[in-house]
Amino acid sequence: MPVVRALSSRPAGRVLRVTQLLAGLFLYGMAIAMMMQATIGIEPWDVLAQGITLRTGIPFGLVTDLVGAVVLLLWIPLRQRPGLGTVLNVLLVGPAAQFGLWAVPQPDELWARILLFGAGLALIAVASGLYIGAQYGPGPRDGLMTGLNARTGRPIWLVRTGIEAAVLLIGWLLGGDVGWGTLAYAACIGPLVHVAIPLFALRLPDPVPGDPDGRLIEPDAAARRRERSQERWALGRLD
Q1: Domain count, the chain
Q2: Which DSSP category does 4 fall into?
Q3: How many angstroms separate the CA atoms of 118 and 211, rounded?
Q4: Would 7 be classed as within a structural domain?
Q5: How far apart are CA 97 and CA 12, in angstroms?
Q6: What are the φ and ψ backbone dihedral angles of 90, each rounded to 5 degrees?
Q7: Packed helices 14-38 and 110-133: angle between N→C axes, nearest 10 degrees
Q8: Are 134 and 18 in contact (CB under 8 A)?
Q9: pLDDT confidence of residue 208
Q10: Four-residue CA torsion sign, 137, 140, 142, 146
Q11: Are 219 and 154 in contact (CB under 8 A)?
Q12: Which of 102, 124, 177, 181 is exposed most, by the fewest CB atoms within 10 A?
């Protein structure tokens, strides 16, 4: 994953990191439910989960967890290393989404559905910033993207587009909800998350890029140390 510089001035303790991680995952599930209840289109992975639910009768939240677990298994041949946030993402987002489907009513008026979708889209960006900013590892779907990028050498944008196009097609064929909201999500989520991640990024006391937690964010000093280390390694390879 690309390095994002943290805006926090103080190192974050473990309690704060775990609290932010859990809050982010819960809000992520609630945001999914809000966009689903708007019924104007949802993001590709939720289209797949919804399609499986329609075909099998398995609750949406459980399907979301099962899909996440299957994707996590795909990390093994890609040699990706999950962190605490990766595992909790698989376990908690589905139940949070299922709770949201129960708690959030489905509006009838189009304007209310548009507002609900917009609120869900904004919330999913904030939730992404919270759980990624806690630096306990990416979600299983993000790890699949970065793993394929590393193994194939294809650009991130191409890998991400290919994965989500395939997932969207399968979900649509299964009967998932594809609409203009799906296009709005695709167009807006990138810029929104780009703002949210640095905003909620926590600075770690002694960050080590590539550690078992799968940290995605490092401060300037750590980035400079990493770059100097890579330069020395490259010069050694040339000798």
Answers
A1: 1
A2: B
A3: 36
A4: no
A5: 28
A6: -65, -35
A7: 160
A8: yes
A9: 45
A10: positive
A11: no
A12: 102
